[in-house]
Automatic annotation (TrEMBL):
SUPFAM superfamilies: NAD(P)-linked oxidoreductase. One of its GO terms (molecular function) is oxidoreductase activity. It comes from the Bacteria. Residues 16-315 form the NADP-dependent oxidoreductase domain. It comes from Nonomuraea dietziae. Coiled coil: none annotated. This is Aryl-alcohol dehydrogenase-like predicted oxidoreductase. Belongs to the shaker potassium channel beta subunit family.
């Protein structure tokens, strides 16, 4: 496993982070334990979750992860979690107010069974709360020793710039942006990456496999495999935008490149994300331990310039043009906003 600094900070993280967005629930605790054990065996030390994961049983994913990590030397791992999205029906059960941040942090600490959170991330930007209130609440948690580092997730470049200025003024470490990033979704490249790099924030890339699309399991003009993410009510909301024929055909054209390198399509896709020097870590999920073993191969696998160019060329379609989404306006856009060629 390769280890990288998270942004310009002194915190080292594994190049792959194990995430449990859709895979950890109270009724899957044993499988989660096996997956976490496999991640540790592969050298993964970074684990990402959120207070909202496992809904409607809010906090379930945090609890399952905490149980799976029980007994692991705390100093040997990095635990990331998030706050902002609704975790209840009350008026203060969402957002980035001082109250919700404080209440959620304490709940996450209990759920995870830990005294501190390595990286506490603002899950989205809150338009209804003054940014100064948000950053001051985060700073207080840092000074109390309950949080070591701060991050954001799916924020625009101007929002990151404003938060970084306040973090500098408050003398607290804002070090990361967790962003969707893959061969097919590159909206952070024009603005987010340059701004973050200048300010010392590293990227934690989620969905490097484009919700499983880049594994090649979805085929043009074929029904999605049974029990795949595309057949679940929640998963289909996210993967649906990639299931148009042009994209699925392009993914299949990547297969010979992967074969030449002795990689699977999934390994190629993860390795591609990790080639970007702005990316500190890529988040992988797993419904079974074998998927972690497979994807761990991508860490430390270098793709040369010729291979990167060949991959880019595959995504240029004669009829539809560039199949990779690059519009910076799509940062944190609703998942039902799809380019016309994906329909």
């Amino acid at each position: 496993m390769e280890y990288r600094k998270l942004g310009a900070s002194g915190l080292s993280v594994s190049a792959l982070t194990y995430g449990n967005w859709l895979t950890h629930s109270a009724d899957a605790a044993e499988n989660a334990r096996q997956c976490v054990a496999e991640a540790l065996d592969a050298g993964i030390t970074s684990f990402d979750t959120a207070d909202v994961y496992g809904r409607p049983d809010y906090g379930a994913a945090e609890r399952v992860l905490g149980q799976a990590l029980s007994g692991v030397r705390r100093a040997s791992i990095e635990i990331f979690t998030k706050v902002c999205l609704p975790t209840g029906t009350g008026p203060n059960d969402k957002g980035l107010s001082r109250k919700h941040i404080t209440d959620s942090c304490h709940a996450s600490l209990r759920n995870l069974g830990t005294d501190y959170i390595d990286l506490y991330q603002a899950h989205r930007f809150d338009e209804e709360t003054p940014l100064e209130e948000t950053m001051t609440a985060f700073a207080d948690l840092v000074r109390q020793g309950k949080v070591l580092y701060l991050g954001v997730s799916e924020w625009r470049a101007d929002q990151i710039e404003a938060a970084a200025a306040l973090a500098k003024e408050l003398r607290v470490p804002l070090i990361s942006n967790q962003a969707q990033y893959s061969l097919l979704w590159r909206v952070i490249e024009p603005e987010i990456v340059p701004t973050s790099s200048r300010l010392g924030l590293g990227q934690i890339a989620f969905s490097p496999l484009a919700q499983g699309t880049l594994t090649g399991k979805y085929r043009p003009e074929q029904q999605p495999p049974a029990e795949s993410r595309a057949t679940s009510s929640l998963g289909s909301t996210f993967v649906g935008r990639y299931l148009g024929g042009p994209v699925l055909s392009a993914v299949q054209r990547l297969r010979p490149i992967a074969d030449e390198l002795g990689l699977t399509l999934a390994q190629l896709a993860v390795a591609w994300v990790l080639q970007n020097p702005a990316v500190s870590s890529a988040i992988i999920g797993a419904s079974r331990p074998g998927q972690i073993r497979e994807n761990a191969v991508a860490a430390g696998h270098t793709l040369d310039a010729e291979t990167m160019a060949r991959i880019d060329a595959v995504l240029i379609d004669d009829m539809y043009g560039d199949l990779a989404e690059r519009d910076p306006a799509k940062v944190a856009a609703p998942f039902d906003v799809m380019p016309a060629w994906k329909s």
